[in-house]
Amino acid sequence: WKSIIHNKMRLKVLFILLLAVCLVESWRRRRRRRRRSCSPVNCVRQWNAWTPCTCLGDSSRTSRVTRGASCGGSCANWPQQKRKCRTNENWRCMFPYGYCNPHSTSKCTCLPGRMGKTCGQKCPHNKFGSGCKQTCNCGGAQCDPQTGKCRCNPGRFGKHCHHAYAILPGIQYIRLKGTTPCHAQIKVAFTAQKARNVCPKPSHYAYRCQCGFGSSAYNLFYGQTCQCAQRVPNSGRYRSSWRNRYVTISYCCPR
């Protein structure tokens, strides 16, 4: 009896194994049939929003996958799209006061001394440097908007306009254009002796002397004093206050 029972158990185990193999094979056949009947489906893409307009006047956008591919479908990448978003030339960066770097910012990058959306504005009074963020140290006088170098008013000189000199009576003081620390002095008189033009002493010297009608003037006292010995003609294209008078022009610079 024991051998008969043992044989029956073997037959049951064998039957279960054969049934499992048949079920697995049947599942594989059904899967292969479903694969053969599946049609390739490509992925679905959608465009992202346009990027903000750069200071070069263009914008771009990219795409993203909203549904993946199936049944062997493809998913090709879409190229980046670009378009012009501003055609107004007044909006672009003003050359040569600023430049545009669209890879880092959509705004104009202004050079020192300039400000504004298109870099078309100079730094305000008493400001200089990049972005006009630095404050001048010129005792209230103007400074170069790029470097901060002081442009001293007549009567002041020095790196920070901290030195003063006396303004003599009867002399017109004119600050020269640019960043030079020099200034011009004009002395008008009826006689040559009274037309003597003296630069501030000992702080300044006269590097150039000129008469009111263009001829050279005398340079006296080791470069500190100038004097004209000829009168301005009484006719021609001259200032009415200069005609028939001695006009001495001195260009004075600090030592």
Automatic annotation (TrEMBL):
<dbReference type="GO" id="GO:0005044">
    <property type="term" value="F:scavenger receptor activity"/>
</dbReference>
<protein>
    <recommendedName>
        <fullName>EGF-like domain-containing protein</fullName>
    </recommendedName>
</protein>
<keyword id="KW-0732">Signal</keyword>
<dbReference type="InterPro" id="IPR000742">
    <property type="entry name" value="EGF"/>
</dbReference>
<dbReference type="InterPro" id="IPR042635">
    <property type="entry name" value="MEGF10/SREC1/2-like"/>
</dbReference>
<feature type="signal peptide">
    <location>
        <begin position="1"/>
        <end position="26"/>
    </location>
</feature>
<feature type="domain" description="EGF-like">
    <location>
        <begin position="150"/>
        <end position="161"/>
    </location>
</feature>
<keyword id="KW-0245">EGF-like domain</keyword>
